[in-house]
Design a protein that fits this description.
382 residues; Butyryl-Coa Dehydrogenase, subunit A, domain 1; Butyryl-CoA Dehydrogenase, subunit A, domain 3; four-stranded mixed β-sheet; four-stranded antiparallel β-sheet
């Protein structure tokens, strides 16, 4: 199971340690799953995580708050066992994050279904012409009698094609740029929505391009107030961005665990590979980066749980360092495994494919650098 001493850090309460232990037992009994049919695997994972009660942590009902430390611990643990399980859990949280934070009582009826594993959610923000540049969103929502008419295209949408509902962002025109966006809750069976393309990637996950041709949504589909979609999206990412770092941390811990087993069992010139000082140096670097990443991830999560209104800088640091370091750790794990490290289907080969996307989605690494730089420059000029 590897090093679990980080659970004794002061960031955590006893309930977090209990959660980690319970989830570890569930993962040992249920993961990994067969990825041959990715759509079916994701549906099964959502149902299983819901039945086991772990999806309750993916949302917050009336009078509840999202606990970011729990979200991060769950993502780290799932990622260490099965990247697709982490994806299934994460998208339930991200997809319904806007409802957890800003949803109306009627919209929260969907939240109860996603937290039970009875419905699959998706977060539809990215477009062909606007990835990290949310202000360039081109999808439009125009008022019509009784509601809104949406036109446009979304792409790289996780759970696209299997989701039961989408939180979708569109331009409503209250002001130029980011200030003219709004968010809507859109059931997948609405007339005018079609899956234009299913996207294939190096670590298979359900991804799609969505086309909206005259989709009409009722007034009550609007989440929060018109024109506040950008603020809503950033609030959601503020909560979930540190958990991307947590998932990377889970991948990195698995890479170190497997590398330790490898170098202690593999012999070279009559002695274990682990006795070579160069190998010991690599292991030390891996362990150091893991602890540094964990400190950043759980600092950000703890700060949010303590009531910080925004953790933009802390979240950016956590995601940037954890994902970039995990890539380096996994690359070294591949190196330590030699030819077996690039064998299709081996654990480290799978980790090598899984980690790459985490350095891109929910804000690419260079975007995080810009966020951090602006925060310190702003502080210097204050």
């Amino acid at each position: 199971m590897g090093d679990r001493s980080f659970l004794d850090w002061p960031f955590f309460e006893e309930r977090h340690r209990d959660l980690a232990e319970a989830l570890e037992g569930w993962c040992a009994a249920n993961l990994p799953v067969d990825h041959t049919d990715v759509d079916a695997a994701c549906r099964g994972l959502v149902a299983a995580l819901g039945a086991a009660g772990f999806l309750r942590h993916s949302g917050a009902g009336i009078g509840e708050r999202l606990d970011v430390r729990s979200l991060a611990l769950i993502r780290e643990t799932l990622a260490r066992h099965d990247g697709l399980a982490d994806f299934a859990f994460a998208m339930q949280g991200l997809g319904m994050g806007a409802i957890s934070l800003f949803g109306s009582p009627s919209q929260r009826l969907w939240l109860e279904r996603t937290r039970a594993g009875a419905a699959i959610s998706a977060f539809a923000l990215t477009e062909p012409g606007s990835g990290s540049d949310v202000a360039a969103t081109a999808t439009t929502a125009v008022r019509v009698p009784g509601g809104w008419r949406l036109e446009g295209e979304k792409t790289w949408i996780s759970n696209g094609g299997i989701a039961d509902l989408y939180v979708i962002f569109a331009r409503t025109g209250e002001a130029p740029g980011a200030r003219g966006l709004s968010a809507f809750l859109m059931p997948a069976d609405v007339t005018g929505l079609r899956i234009a393309e299913r996207l294939q990637v190096i670590a298979p996950h359900p991804l799609a391009t969505l086309r909206l041709d005259g989709v009409v949504l009722p007034e009550e589909a609007l989440i929060g107030r018109a024109g506040e979609g950008f603020k809503l999206a950033m609030s959601v990412l503020d909560v979930f961005r540190p958990t991307v770092g947590a998932a990377a941390l889970g991948f990195a811990r698995r890479a170190l665990d497997d590398s330790l087993a490898r170098v202690q069992s593999r012999r070279i010139q009559g002695a274990p590979l682990a006795e070579l000082q160069m190998v010991q140096g690599h292991l030390a670097d891996m362990a150091l980066k893991i602890d540094a990443a964990a400190l950043l991830v759980y600092r950000a999560a703890w700060a949010k749980d303590q009531g910080a209104p925004r953790i933009t800088r802390e979240a950016a640091m956590a995601k940037l360092y954890a994902t970039e370091s995990a890539q380096e750790i996994i690359d070294m794990a591949v190196q330590l495994h030699g030819g077996d490290g690039v064998r299709t289907g081996s654990m480290v080969e799978s980790l090598y494919r899984e980690i790459r996307a985490l350095r891109i989605y929910e804000g690419a690494s260079d975007v995080q650098r810009v966020v951090i730089a602006r925060s310190i420059l702003g502080g210097a000029h204050a």
